[in-house]
Design brief:
Length: 333
């Protein structure tokens, strides 16, 4: 079925693996003749110092893009940049301090990026946290909603005037279990770490599809697409247990990573495809293998709740109110 939900067949080719990762290949490290040359493109990746963001940044730089590695810790980001340059000495990379848990940091980063890059081809909203014990951002938002959705909402809004091609939002399979609790968005009544993660990942989907619809209505040529990495072994699974000082949970997560997960490079495949392939707005790219946990990237289905336009419009409005950032989707950069 077409990923655009209610829309009749749109020719988007659901079910067919995308050309970018040909049959028989297990890695994206080797360049193929038909892989797009990204020389001259500027791509900003949030959370680029680790896991999927790092691997996506590395693969995009490998293909010639100028990749801006955005992250909250200067040292970790500089280290990631050095690792990319060590692999590919000709890589064009830059760094940007960005803490999505602080609206002031998001605003400063957006202003610096607009100043440095009058045109950003692709913004990849990748950074994320999962199943943390209850924590608040600098602005008092529940951390998972704050970083995964609200920070990216504010960043995208403030970069929109200079984005020229696409916004990629990284969500998760678990958006299927998400529910936006508009009565208690921040979990003030009752905080549960997993539902809070599911909520934030459904918020990613609602936001990306609403951006797609608003862009289309405004006659924008920019597209908003989504991807998910399946299950990839990264730091994501250990941050929460470390904060909770739970060796038990850390062990379970470590076992899952070793037994089931694909590696971070494979997990970055859908992100690279979503950032570079010629896809219709609103597309969702994920691994096509076992239960979408792993495998070569292709177009996959968004859960029905992701197409809830009323919830998406309401979330947009609430996100504007909470962040104090108005997001008028004009034709863009
Ligand atoms: N791994 C999976 O199986 C999986 C599955 C589904 C979806 N995802 C999604 O994939 C994305 C990337 O996760 P990952 O698996 O690559 O995890 P990861 O290795 O932990 O990377 C997460 C990145 O987000 C950054 N980040 C966290 N809080 C931030 C903040 N306040 N401001 C700026 N950056 C911040 C981290 O920076 P620090 O290193 O400084 O903490 C890190 O660079 C997330 O959106 C996640 O929800 C992952």
């Amino acid at each position: 079925m077409c990923p655009l939900g209610g829309v009749a067949f749109c020719g988007c080719g659901v079910g067919t693996p995308v050309r970018f990762w040909p049959e028989g290949e297990t890695s994206m490290s080797e360049l193929n003749a038909e892989d797009p040359d990204l020389t001259g493109k500027t791509i900003v990746v949030t959370g680029a110092n680790s896991g999927i963001g790092f691997e996506a940044a590395r693969l995009l730089a490998r293909r010639g893009a100028t990749v801006v590695l955005a992250g909250r810790n200067d040292e970790r980001v500089a280290d990631a940049q050095a690792r990319i340059v060590a692999d590919y000495p000709a890589a064009r990379t830059a760094t940007q301090r960005l803490d999505l848990a602080s609206l002031a940091s998001v605003a400063a980063a957006a202003a610096e990026l607009r100043e440095s890059y009058p045109s950003i081809d692709v913004l990849v909203n990748n950074a994320g946290v999962m199943a943390l014990p209850k924590r608040a951002t600098a602005d008092g938002f529940e951390m998972q909603l704050g970083v995964n959705h609200l920070g990216h909402f504010a960043l995208t809004a403030q970069l929109w005037p200079v984005i020229t091609t696409r916004v990629v939002t990284v969500t998760s399979l678990v958006h299927r279990m998400g529910k936006i609790d508009f009565d208690d968005l921040m979990g003030e009544g009752r905080y549960q770490k997993w539902p809070a993660y599911f909520q934030s990942k459904l918020a990613n989907v609602l936001f990306a599809l609403e951006l797609h619809r608003r862009g289309e209505a405004a006659g924008s040529t920019m597209s908003s697409v989504l991807c998910h990495p399946g299950y990839a072994s990264t730091n994501l699974q250990s941050v929460g247990p470390t904060m909770e000082k739970s060796g038990f949970l850390k062990g379970i997560m470590g076992f899952g990573n070793a037994a089931i997960a694909q590696d971070a490079e494979a997990g970055a495949g859908p992100t690279v495809v979503a950032a570079t392939e010629d896809l219709p707005g609103g597309s969702f790219v994920g691994p096509k293998g076992l239960m979408e946990f792993r495998g070569r990237p292709g177009l996959v289905k968004i859960a029905r709740r992701g197409y809830d336009e009323a919830a998406a419009a309401r979330l947009w409005e609430v996100s504007e109110e909470l962040t104090g950032v108005s997001f008028e989707v004009g034709t863009g950069g």
